[in-house]
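HUMAN: Forgive my ignorance: could you write out one protein's sequence and backbone structure tokens?

ASSISTANT:
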Amino acid sequence: MDLHPGESVIYEGHPSARSIMSLYAKGAVFGALVGAIFWFATSHALGVLLFVGIVALTFLFGLVQRFFVRYSITNQRLYLQRGIISRNVQQTRIDRVQNVTTRQSVMDRLFRVGSVDFDTAGTDDSNFIFAGVNDPQRVVAAVAEAQRESAAMQPAGTPPATGV
């Protein structure tokens, strides 16, 4: 991410390794189910091969999901980057953030991770979600800090940024 003049990074991260654990568990259960079906229906070797293949693909998918997603919060904007070969980059000015919602499923609470959903002014289709972050409340605090810094940098007479 290229920083603008006067811009500083407040938070930077990736989805947590713990957030991928539920994906790995689902992949292992699915692999065991498919492997068991082929173990009993055809051959033992094919069952084992399918189990190992499904678990390996799940592991690879989880790694890709974790390492090729990057979240950043600066004193001027939110930044979300996804992709390996092709890139999908979303960014918005920090003063456009109106509401911040944190979500934790039962599995998320078990693994101590969560998602942070940002609602931005004037856009219905923008889906800013920092999924699988270690400490969702820390992300919310980073946005609040970024909004305070952004408001402090605005010249006198301009309307203040909306709060979180």
Summary: Strands lie at 9-13, 69-74, 77-82, 88-93, 97-103, 114-120, 128-133. The first helix runs from residue 21 to 41.
